[in-house]
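Lab meeting minutes (informal)
Scribe: AK
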Amino acid sequence: FLKLSKSYEEIRYGSHDMQRMELYLPSSTTTSDNDVRGLVFFVHGGAWGSGMPWMYRLVALPFLEELRMAVVIVGYRTYPDANVSEQVDDLVSAAIEFARVKPDLIQKKKKYKNNTRGGDDTNEWLGNSIIGHSSGAHIAFLMLLKHLCLKSKLIKSQRNKLKEKEISKIDMSSLSSILGIDFDSFVGLSGPYDISHHFDYEAGRGVEEISPMKPACGHSREDFHVASPAILLTKLIAMNDILEEGTVQNDDGKNDDNADVDSLLQQYGSCCPSMFLPRILMVHGMEDGTVPFTATSEAARILRSCGVTNLDELYLAQTGHEDTVMHFMLGGEAKDGTLKWLKDEYCLNGKDDSTATSKKVMVSNQSRL
């Protein structure tokens, strides 16, 4: 901890004291070197009302030492200085500022090849990952949905390619200044993804009035739904946010008033979220008394119902709420599973692996995975 405290670089992205990041690089690495294999953008938890980057410095160690990835621990305004929407805005601003001042750390180096299944090769590029714990996982996921909406708007502006079913060829380079970092993977550790359900759970524990969640996320069920990433994704599909609302072109390039929008949603809505969301790993301890593991299992079910297929789940026996992040600091299964997943030992690779399926659920009983 003391060594890390002397070796980080602080990056400010706003005037508030909490709008700062701590950047850690692998030993003997500078920002001009080509040895960094990717970036971890870590978002700490704290029930939306507490937490600072220095508290999570030890999280950086396994990524620095075992994967040679750069790590940036992001600070953001917490309640009462900011509500959830403003916290998400802070993450967006942080990513944009980081991409501006450290562009070399988020761009694949020519010396690295694309990651493949079983990535023990040190010459493989591991990409840019956003990892969040607890409330940090929640706001990180909301940030990714903001990115999804921006990308869907770009599809609307290039609808001719959509008609030709060439979504994957759409040029996303124009969004670089808006997205900042276009993440390749998301890891959610013990996160709540449905705020309405989590409010009920907190009420059952008798802590709903002292928890910062209700004022930070809003005081009504409607506000809770707006702050719930799993529900927002279903609304994104239902509102036809991928296609232009109300107008569909036929093969002649003219508006087809009789087009079946529902059938087009079924055709495109099931593939776009999977295509424009990064690959996802959701980790949860089965002894979590703060956020029950069912928060992850239910969110995963909803995501798959929206067509998201690049999603894995890891459930850890005898593991509590804080344990999933402490495993990164002191060693444990959450850390081991995540690092292996990032190296594609657990990640599905449908293009190269004929045995890959649409989902992978892993349950650890402390003796085997």
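Next up, CB showed the second protein from the same session:
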Amino acid sequence: LMERLAAYASSSGELMAELIEVQAFEKLRSAVNEVVVSYGDGLPLESVIMLHAALLSFALHCYRDELQYVNSVLESAAKVLSKTPNISDTSVVRSIVKLLTKPLEAYKDVCTVLELSSYPQVAGTLQFVTAKAMAIEVINAILSSGTIISQVVQVEKLFSFLRLLVDNDEIPEDEEIDEEELEEEQVLVSKVLHQLWNDDTDVCFEILECIRTHLLKGGPERTVYTLPPLAFLALRLERAVRERVKAGNTPKVSVKKVLQFLHSTLEILVNQCDAYEIGLRLLLLSAESAAQAGLEAIAYEFCEQAFIVYEENISETRMQITALKLIVGTMNR
């Protein structure tokens, strides 16, 4: 009934106004709560979640911009689900996924979903595999919509969604790691990193620091995939800071500070992840950027690190030749 009413109301502006005037949402929410309380344990959990999903559809259709209504439905669902740990019933899990999918479909801007504080609470009731699948859905929604997440607080909220993909402490001890699946997941995480950006270089630097803090929780098996795109973001930021300085601005975060961040990131990539080939390439790109910024001492540090990688860590003949060409080419430029 709620879903049919919502669909009908969305096609009629007059009816929509009337529903708002008579406080239809509050009355329907009260009715849902009464049903849940009166039936108690006699009402299957799947039915409880379906009621919340119908109420959520109504809120998304009729009160789309009133996030407190949408969030209140999710909060109520989270409270109900918290009473039943380790939910494994397939029909219940399917209902929870449907509930979580509705906001993603309704709000093309994923930043809006990030504002729903109760969304992660509902997602947290899912078991590991399903919760991880929902995290991937969030990434796909960001990539398909092209959403740019531009505030540090939003980035923090995003990583609360993605924690199962980037934080080793969130992975169950008995969970076997499939290398191919791990690579696919980290490639997705790497892609979404390029959507985290702010044209204000000072804010952007905070975003990059926030990203690195979360990525490093994943250990070398994950950061070998995710630190290179972070390094490319830092190179992009360095160029943006340099342009601001040329335009006569005085950003708080200097080119030198960005390059120092880049240097420490690449040290982790090379020394902890053993990513020598991509590490050497990024060190040389960083050296070139530092030289263009007139920071010869920092450029020398990058080149020195690149030579160390070449001499100590690259033994395969073909790669040695390629590395030498890259080094010589960078020096000539």
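CB comment: The mean pLDDT is 90.
No objections, moving on.
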